[in-house]
Amino acid sequence: MRATDRRTDYRLTFVVLCVGVGSFSLLQSMVTPVLATIERGLGTDQATVTWVLTAYLLSASVCTPIVGRVGDKIGKERMLVFALGSLAVGSFLAAIAPSIGVLIVARAIQGIGGGVLPLTFGIIRDEFPRDKVPGALGTSAALLAVGGGIGLVVAGPIVDALSYHWLFWLPMVLTLLAALAAHFFVPESPERAPGRINLGTALLMSTWLVALLLAVSQGHSWGWASPEVVGLFVLAAVVLPVWVWAEARSDSPLIDMTMMRIPTVWTVNLVSLLFGMGMYSMFAFLPQFLQTPADVTGYGFGASVTQSGLMLLPQTVATFVAGLASGRLAVRYGSKAMLVAGAALTSLGTVGIVVAHDHVWQLLVESTVLGLAFGLAFAAMSNLIVDAVPQTQTGVASGMNANIRTVGGAIGGAVLATVITAGHRPDGFPVESGYTHGFFLLVVTSALAAVVAVAVPVMRATTHLVPGPQTEAELEALKGGTAAHGRAR
């Protein structure tokens, strides 16, 4: 029996959603530590192999808000199956890729799976009892950071024991199972946004996003003053206001500019931009710092890929614990307080790395603080966004928030790469001050995120077309007594 015939228990739905989000987040980070292995395995060069990351970034940035919006309009369950199916297909192609070109195409297909995030948040809002929504949102949002951390931990052991191909075989199995479970067990959306999909504004949004992210991600290797990078920045600067103008005047906008101007939405999005700069940059450069050979450079720990991942395991555990606790904390203290605390703890943990990084125990403590911060902040941002927008815009609002965080990560990574590599030792390693200066920039962005978080107004959307069930008891009543007529609303 399809889930559309009878409302599936929300706990089963949650398991399926978590598998999907976890698989997507794993694919974001597992490939990064083994790029050199992929480069050797496919006989390519360093400049080309970075497109394995860039293609995924560009595809996910474009597809995340678009898939979320399409889900708002035609049904979140069917789009969830599509997003998970894309992850599975892309993972299969990546696992069997005979050349770097095929692998890059496969990674672009995987990027479509970015739509899993906004669809997950929308389904939780549609299907869960109201008192369970904050905790479910917090846990699923924290899984994005947890998956990123786990990817760094398991990449080395998987490659050492098997091969880099298994970095794609394993997620393929998970996402294929999740897609089948979503088809059979996740209920179809009871809420639909009216209107058509505006292809013109979707094209405009894709153009400025790709131009901006391509310039940022390739600026370090192509040269910030190169004609290609300058031209891409100019293109993004020209198309962005045109896109905003077109969306504001559209009868059926892809991204509702009125929604984007809601005070809670734009302030939380600004926090996401600043927070993304710190979190994703830390994922990228802290393992590199740990892997730097101390006997050669005088800093670092000479850790292998596997060892550096294990050293960051406490951070991942802390993120997961914070995500699990986020629901109760949000009820007791409010999501805004959690967001402020998450941003402030990020700044504190990063300050610790700047001033004390000579011993393993110091970095274990500091990265654990960062893990708690990531879990709290991810959960808070998701809850604040979902609470502030109408139910029919949950997917697109969540998608744009995730997208803005990704843009922040791309900008932060590019800036840090430039700062860290500004001074090189004769042996080719960055000087220690490059890392300390780069991490100090993240202290600044995290502190700014905390300041903006203090200014976030707490509000709940008053234009929800249909209220969801308020308690678990109400949900059970809706499943039973009103099954013949669908969900009671």
TrEMBL record:
Q: Name one GO cellular component term.
A: plasma membrane
> Which key words are in the record?
Cell membrane, Membrane, Transmembrane, Transmembrane helix, Transport
| InterPro entries reported for this sequence | MFS, MFS_dom, MFS_trans_sf
Q: Which GO terms describe its molecular function?
A: transmembrane transporter activity
The membrane-spanning stretches of this chain are 12-36, 48-67, 79-98, 104-124, 136-158, 164-185, 197-217, 229-246, 266-290, 310-331, 338-357, 369-390, 402-423, 435-456
Membrane topology listed for this record: Multi-pass membrane protein
**Domain Major facilitator superfamily (MFS) profile positions:** 13-464
Q: Where in the cell is it found?
A: Cell membrane
Check the record and name the SUPFAM superfamilies matching this protein. MFS general substrate transporter (SSF103473)
Query: Which Pfam families does the record cross-reference, listed alphabetically?
Result: MFS_1
UniProt protein name: MFS transporter
